[in-house]
Amino acid sequence: MGDLCQNQRRKFWFAVIWRLCNFCMSVFFSLATYVQINDPDAGLWMVGYGVPAVLAGLVGLNPHVTETLPWRRLSDLHVTLSAAVAAMLAWRLDKERLSEMFHQEEGRAPVGLLRVLTAVGITVFPFVAWLYFHLNQELRANWPTHCKTAI
After folding, report:
1. Are both 80 and 107 inside the same structural domain?
2. For residue 52, with 0-12 CB atoms within 10 Å meaning exposed, 13-18 middle and 19 or more buried, which class applies?
3. Which residues cross the membrane (predicted)?
4. Do 18 and 84 fall within a single domain?
5. Distance CA 95, CA 114 (A)
């Protein structure tokens, strides 16, 4: 009986964390939408960031919304259009034979993304590793006692 209650509590907290992460992503994409106001292609980028903001916000409010047809169609359409835009940019780079790709915005953006992903990975890794070891008790079985009582 105790395992059942603990398992239900764990599922509850995972659901809370999932919703919180979606709300954070919704806020992030909303802010990214807002800062595109001064961009020459503001309409394009605002839609590109606004749609994921709405989709993530809906998942944060009701995680089961992903099972509805409108949500799935909108997310599929957004992924398709994003892939088409990426393919168009790649075709343009190939067609124009740009040798100095980092002088173009399309060349600098992926490098900035890699920098951000690296920083986020370095920041998040200790928390994810701690959570992984905290949830898997069999991994902690052989630890010395001073490690078991530290947290």
Report:
1. no
2. buried
3. 12-37, 43-62, 74-93, 113-133
4. yes
5. 25
Report DSSP letters for 107-145, one per residue.
HHHHHHHHHHHHHHHHHHHHHHHHHHHHH-GGGGTTS-H
For residues 75 and 115, membership in a common domain is answered with: no
Total domains in the chain come to 2
- Same domain (yes/no): 112, 137: yes
Average pLDDT of the segment spanning 31-45: 86
Alpha helices in the chain (DSSP H): 2-34, 42-61, 69-95, 105-135, 145-148
The tens digit of pLDDT for each residue in 76-115 reads 999 999 899 888 878 887 787 766 766 766 667 777 778 8
pTM: 0.61
